[in-house]
Amino acid sequence: MTQAFFKVLDVEQVLGLRQRFQPVSSEDVLLEAAVGRILAEDVHAAGNLPGFARSTVDGYAVRAASTFGASESSPALFTVVGAVAMGEVPQVAVAAGEAARIATGGMLPPGADGVVMLEHAESLDDVSIEVVRSVAPGQNLIAAGEDFENGARVAAVGRRLRPQDMGVLAAFGRTRVKAFRQPVVGIISTGDEIVPAEATPGPAQIRDVNRYTLAGLVAQTGALPVAFGIVGDEFQSLHAACRRALEQCDMVLISGGSSVGARDFSVEVISAFAGAELLVHGIAISPGKPTILAKVFGKALWGLPGHVVSSMIVFSRIVRPVLLHIGGLAAPTAEDIRIPARLNRNVASAQGRTDFVRVRLLHRENEWRAEPILGKSGLINTMVKSDGVIEIGKNIEGLDEGARVEVILF
Amino acid sequence: MTQAFFKVLDVEQVLGLRQRFQPVSSEDVLLEAAVGRILAEDVHAAGNLPGFARSTVDGYAVRAASTFGASESSPALFTVVGAVAMGEVPQVAVAAGEAARIATGGMLPPGADGVVMLEHAESLDDVSIEVVRSVAPGQNLIAAGEDFENGARVAAVGRRLRPQDMGVLAAFGRTRVKAFRQPVVGIISTGDEIVPAEATPGPAQIRDVNRYTLAGLVAQTGALPVAFGIVGDEFQSLHAACRRALEQCDMVLISGGSSVGARDFSVEVISAFAGAELLVHGIAISPGKPTILAKVFGKALWGLPGHVVSSMIVFSRIVRPVLLHIGGLAAPTAEDIRIPARLNRNVASAQGRTDFVRVRLLHRENEWRAEPILGKSGLINTMVKSDGVIEIGKNIEGLDEGARVEVILF
Asked: A210: part of which helix (H) or strand (E)?
C-alpha cells in the first residue's frame, strides 16, 4: 500500500482528490423518469424550435407594416380573409390590409409577420376589423428557431436534469436519454456496541443510527444506498464486508469506529487490500477530523466518524461533492446553493482547522438569521433542530453577531 | 356547479384555498426508504437516548471530584482498576482516586461521572496514571436521556423526513413508520396542435413539452406523476379524460389551452361534473393569469396555462404548496427556502398583479446576485438559463438595481 500523505489535509485538498476517481458508466433512461438524473451526452437541437412561426396571443395575423400609424383616433382597416385552425397549416395567405384570425400557438399564415392582439381590434362586420394599435414585425409571435436553432446545444454532459431540461428534450423528441448510472453506495456499520435498529439493545448497546442517516444522505444525493449490515471490531469480518461492498458498489462508507483504536483498525483493514492507496487520514475540520479516504480497486472507500453528527457533516461537505463527481455531475446546481444569512450570536472557532457550526434559519426583516444550536456536539437532537451548518474557515478565529455567513442545508 | 368567486384572485387568496382539500391517507413505509416522505404520526421516545451514560472521548472514566485542582504542575494520581469493553456492561466500579480505561461510546462504569481525555493523562505504569487537567461532572460524556428523554416527541405529523430524522427514528427502533401516501397527480395535455414527444410533428404541430416538464415538477415535489396522454379540443374526450384521471389520482393538471377559447372550453368541461366547484378563474399574476382551480369529487383539478413557462411558474408558486398540503406537509422545510439575493439590473413591473421575473444566480462578493434573464416570455430557453424566479408584489412598481429579492429556485 502507498500513502500519498501522512498529514492531516484541509477541506480543499480532500475535495481536489475527487479527480482521482472515474465517473460511473451511463445507461439509457426514460425521459419521463429522468428528473434529477445526470445527463451523459450532449444533446443538440434536431431542428428549429419552434419549427414554424407561432402566435403568442389570440388575435389577427397581419403584415405589421399595414398597422403602422394605427391608433384609437385613427384606426387601420383590415379585411379578414380567414382563420387559422390549431395544429393545421393555414389555408390562407395574408396580403397588405388583410388579416387572418389566429389563436395562441397557431401557425402564422404566409405573408404575416406580426399579430394584433384581440383587444386591440374591433370587429365591424364578418369580414372587416379596425386595428387601434400598431405592431412591429415579429411582435406577439415566436419565429421559427427563435427558441433554439437547429444544431444548437440544448443540454450538456454532466447537467443534472431539471423539469425545464426535460421539457426541452421532449421538444426535440428525446423520450430516452443517456444518463450516468446512479452510483451504488455501500454502507457498512462497525462497532461492537452497535445492534440492528429492529433489535432491543442491551444495557451498553445502541441501535444502528448511522446506517439510516447515511442512507438518507446518499439517496438525497441521487445515489442508491445499500446496507451491508453491522460488523464487529474483528479484522476478517470487516475485511470481508469491505471486499463484498467494493465488488458490488461504486463507493463504500465504513461508518463507526470513533475511538482511536477503531480508527487505526479501519486503516489496517483498508491497507490490507492489494494496491490500496490511503489518500486521506484525518481532515483539519471539527467535527469530523477522524475521516479516512482510500482508493481500493479504483473505488472510493471512506472511513467516517462514528458520531452520527460528525458523520453527517463530513458527508454533506466532503463525501457529497466526491459522490456527485463519481455520479457524473459537472457543476453544482440549485440544490447545492448555500443560503446567505447573518449570524445572530457570536461564535467561537479554533484557528488552523475549519469549524462547522449547526444553525437554525430564522426569517427576520427580509433576510435569514442563522442561530447557532447549542448543546453537546454528540447529541443527535442538535441535528434535528438544525437546518444546516455554517463553515468557519481555518484562518478565522470566531465570528461576531451580525457576520455574513452561508448555510449548507441539510 | 357553484362558483365561489367570479373575480381574479391574488396569490395569497389562492394559496388559502388549499385548506379546502383533505390530505391523502397514510401507509406504512420502510424507514430505510423514507427520506423525503412526510410523517403521518407523532413519534415519541420509547425510552431514554442514550439508554446509558456514554463516553464521547477515549480516556479514563473517573469521579470528576478526584480531578479537581489537577494541572501540569500538580497532576492528580489515579489507580487504573480496569477497562470498559465496548458494548458490554462494565465489570468494574470506580471509587475516588480510581480510573477505568474507556473508549468513545463506551458505557460509564458505576461511580464515574466524568471522563478524562487520553491526552490529559500520562501512564506511569500498568496500574497508575497522572491526570493533568480537571474535568467537571458530566464532562466528556452524554448522560442517559440527555439526547432525548423517555416520552419526548422526537418527530411530529407533517414533518418531511430528513436523514437526521431517519437516524432518530432508528435510534428508537422504528424501522417502519406511518407516512402519507405520495399523492398521485394526473397530467392531461390538451390542444389540437400537440403531438406526443415520440412523434414527428407536422408543419403546424408541436411536441408535448408540458407533460414532461410537469412530470418533473410533480416528482420533485415528492408526488407521483401519471400521464393521461393528449386530448384534442373536444368536449367528450376531455371530459372522459378528466373523469378517468380524477378517479385514479389525488390531483389533476390539465395542461394547455392558452387561447381564450380553449380556456373557456376547459371551464365548460369542468363545470359539467356534478358538484364541481370553480374556486379560481384567473390569478392576478404574470405570467400565469389564465389559471383555473376547481374542486371536483373532493379533488383539486387545475387548468394550467398552455405556455410551458407560465405553467412552470404557476406550478412552483401556486400548485406546489397546495400539492404539499395534500401530501400532508405541515410546514415548509429547507428545500422550500428562498435564496436572498440582490438584483443586478432594474426590473419593471405592473401594479395590481404579482410579477415573476426569471433570474440566474451569480455569486459575487460573498452574496448572490439575481440577474434577470432577457428574452420573450414564451421561450423555453429562458427557463433553461434560469435558476429560479423572483416575485414582485402587486403593490410594487418595479425594482431597482441593488434591491433585495428572494429567489424561488427551480
From this structure: helix A209-220
Interface A–B counts its CB contacts (< 8 A) at: 324
Q: Is the peptide bond before B110 cis (omega within 30 degrees of 0)?
A: no
Among residues A132, A123, A143, the alpha carbon closest in space to that of A55 is found at: A143
Residue A226 belongs to what H/E stretch?
Answer: strand A224-231
pLDDT tens-place string over residues B56-102: 999 999 999 999 999 999 999 999 999 999 999 999 999 999 999 99
Task: Give the pLDDT confidence score for residue B6 in this predicted structure.
Answer: 58
Locate the DSSP E strands across B145-286: 153-155, 176-180, 184-190, 194-195, 206-207, 224-231, 251-255, 277-281, 285-286
Q: Are A181 and B25 in contact (CB under 8 A)?
A: no
Strands B98-102 and B76-83, sheet pairing: parallel
Helices (H), B208-344: 209-220, 235-248, 260-271, 308-314, 320-326
Kind of pairing, strands B299-304 and B251-255? Answer: parallel
Rounded to 5 degrees, φ, ψ at A217 are -65, -40
Q: How confident is the model at residue B335 (pLDDT cuts 50, 70, 90)?
A: low
Q: How is A311-343 classified by DSSP, letter by letter?
A: HHHHIIIIIHHHHHHHTT--S--GGGPPEEEEE
Tell me the torsion sign for CA atoms A215, A339, B360, B391. positive
Which pTM value belongs to this model? 0.95
Instruction: Please judge whether A104 and B376 are an interchain contact, meaning their C-beta atoms are less than 8 angstroms apart.
Output: no
Decide: B169 and B32 in contact? Cβ < 8 Å: no
Q: Is B220 on the interface with A (CB under 8 A)?
A: yes
Per the CB < 8 A criterion, the answer to whether B317 and B409 are in contact is no
Q: How far, in Å, are A292, A306, A311, B220 from residue A232 at the CA level?
A: 19, 13, 19, 39
**Residues B84, B106 contacting (CB under 8 angstroms):** yes
| Tens of pLDDT, residues B342-386 | 999 999 998 899 999 999 999 887 789 999 998 888 899 999 999
Do B6 and B281 form a contact (C-beta atoms < 8 A)? yes
pLDDT of residue A170: 98
* Rg of chain A on CA atoms, in Å: 31
- Please give the average per-residue pLDDT across B13-38, as a whole number: 97
Among residues B359, B358, B355, the alpha carbon closest in space to that of B394 is found at B355
Q: Could you give the ipTM of this predicted complex?
A: 0.95
Contacts of B37 in chain A (CB under 8 A): none
Whether the CB-CB separation of A300 and A277 falls below 8 Å is answered with no
Contact between A32 and B227 using a beta-carbon 8 Å cutoff: yes
- Contact at CB, B209 and A167, closer than 8 angstroms: yes
> Do A304 and A186 form a contact (C-beta atoms < 8 A)?
no
Closest chain A residue by Cα to residue B162: A216
Nearest beta carbon to residue B378 from set A56, A191, A261: A56
B361 vs A: CB within 8 A: yes
Domains of chain B: 2-25+181-326 (3.40.980.10), 26-49+146-180 (3.90.105.10), 54-142 (2.170.190.11), 338-409 (2.40.340.10)
The Cα-based distances of B71 to A312, B62, B68, B130, B138 in angstroms read 35, 16, 9, 10, 19
| pLDDT, position A263 | 80
| A308 lies within 8 A of chain B by CB | yes
Residue type, B183: P
Give CA–CA dist A195/A206, Å, rounded: 6
